[in-house]
Structures are given as structure tokens and as C-alpha cells.
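Support request from a user on the community tier.

User writes: "When I paste my C-alpha cells into the form, the page sometimes reloads and wipes my input. The last time it worked, I copied everything first. Here is what I submitted, just in case something in the input itself triggers the reload:"
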């Protein structure tokens, strides 16, 4: 069903249409749809759109056990106030078990391994249940995301091909904050301290003027992605 021709046609069609139009098409045509959200300003904007289209849509949060307190507070606030159909996915092992097996501060010694255990493996589990995966990725976030399409495919390790949808791929950071401000959306207060991309607390720092949004993630590690979007190649 998800041929290259189909995907290119849909991606091109929705390229210059509002993000809401792509989301409407997804929820009108597919059943097993999920939005993986870190509750960034980008993601909160998409949740706000989704709620107006399909109020009971599945929102997925990967709880690594390393998020900032501010992130957990925002998740709980929106879960309650927006009545989210929220599915929280946890790693198979606790932080304590991880430290027993790999030693303390694995995120410093081997950040790829830590991300694999606490983010990528949980994501692989939840994606098996989906036909369509919605993300909040934007092209201007980092060089690794510069060429993403509005509609793509993603092959899981077991060979299953799912549709991957990036409704705000063509938005800029300015577009995100315009939407947040116009709709008076809550956001993580760490943004006010120049955290422009907020992940796990041990691996996230504020961004300096002129740096890419994701420069504050794994600073000094030569790493821009946790692996959530790169564990298999897109078709």
C-alpha cells in the first residue's frame, strides 16, 4: 500500500498545505495512528491540532526515567486538562538495573547504548502496534533532519512498513512559537532558560546564540539524534 509513488504523491500534495490538512487526511483514512510526543513546544502544538480533529487520538510518551521535572509536570498537566488518551511507555529495565549491568552514568560513557535502552527499544515496541506514526520533526532543527518529507515510510526491524508523517516538517522555530502564542498553549518553562530542544536531563543543556536547536543535546559527544528516527532507514 505504501509504495514510493504513493508516498511521494502525498508528501508533495501536503507540502504547502496547513499541517491540520495532513492530520485530517491521516485520521480519516487510517485506524492505528499514534503521535510520539516529548511534549516540546512543537509537539504540544501538534497535540492541540489533533485534539480538534480526533479528541481521543493516541498520544505516546516515552518515559526514560531521566526527563526534567518540568517535563513530567507538563505531561501531567496536559494529560489532565486536555483529557489526553496518553500511553506512557517505559524501558524494560529500571535506571537501577541499568547501573548494575552497565555501571553508573551510561549516558556519559556510551550515550548511544543508553538511548537504545531507554528510548529506541521502547519505541520499537510501540511502533509494532501502529500503521501510521506522527512525529513533530522539523527540517530546520538540525542537519540530520534537513531533508525530511511531510509523508515518508519507516521500516521496522521485523520488516513491517509503516507510514511516518511529519506535519510541521516545513515549519520554522518562529512558526512554532507563533502558534503557541496565538493559541495560548502551555509550554515547558525550560524554554525560557534557552533550552531549545529538551530531552533527558543529564544530556541536555541550554543552547548558545547562533547554534542549531539541537546543539544542546549530547553536547561534546558528536551526537545529534537519540536514534528514535534513525534506527532503520526510511524507504
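"...and here is what came back when it finally went through:"
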Amino acid at each position: 500500500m505504501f509504495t514510493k509513488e504513493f508516498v511521494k504523491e502525498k508528501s508533495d500534495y501536503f507540502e504547502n498545505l496547513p499541517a491540520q490538512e495532513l492530520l485530517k487526511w491521516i485520521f480519516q483514512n487510517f485506524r492505528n495512528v499514534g503521535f510520539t510526543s516529548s511534549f516540546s513546544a512543537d509537539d504540544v502544538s501538534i497535540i492541540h491540532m489533533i485534539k480538534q480533529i480526533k479528541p481521543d487520538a493516541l498520544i505516546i510518551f516515552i518515559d526514560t526515567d531521566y526527563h526534567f521535572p518540568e517535563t513530567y509536570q507538563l505531561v501531567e498537566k496536559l494529560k489532565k486538562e486536555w483529557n489526553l488518551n496518553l500511553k506512557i511507555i517505559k524501558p524494560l529495565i529500571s535506571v537501577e538495573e541499568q547501573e548494575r549491568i552497565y555501571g553508573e552514568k551510561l549516558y556519559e560513557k556510551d550515550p548511544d547504548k543508553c538511548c537504545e535502552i531507554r528510548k529506541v527499544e521502547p519505541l520499537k515496541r510501540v511502533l509494532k502496534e501502529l500503521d501510521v506514526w506522527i512525529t513533530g520533526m522539523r527540517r530546520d532543527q538540525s542537519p540530520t533532519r534537513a531533508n525530511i518529507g511531510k509523508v515518508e515510510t519507516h521500516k521496522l526491524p521485523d520488516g513491517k512498513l509503516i507510514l511516518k508523517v511529519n506535519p510541521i516538517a516545513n515549519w520554522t522555530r518562529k512558526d512554532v512559537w507563533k502558534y503557541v502564542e496565538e493559541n495560548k498553549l502551555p509550554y515547558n518553562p525550560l524554554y525560557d532558560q534557552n533550552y531549545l530542544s529538551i530531552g533527558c536531563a543529564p544530556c541536555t543543556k541550554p543552547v548558545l546564540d547562533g547554534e542549531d536547536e539541537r546543539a544542546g543535546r549530547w553536547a561534546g559527544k558528536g551526537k545529534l539524534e537519540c536514534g528514535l528516527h534513525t534506527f532503520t532507514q526510511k524507504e
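Agent notes: The reload is a front-end session timeout and is unrelated to the input. The chain has one domain: 4-216. The two ends are 13 Å apart (CA to CA). Escalated to web team.
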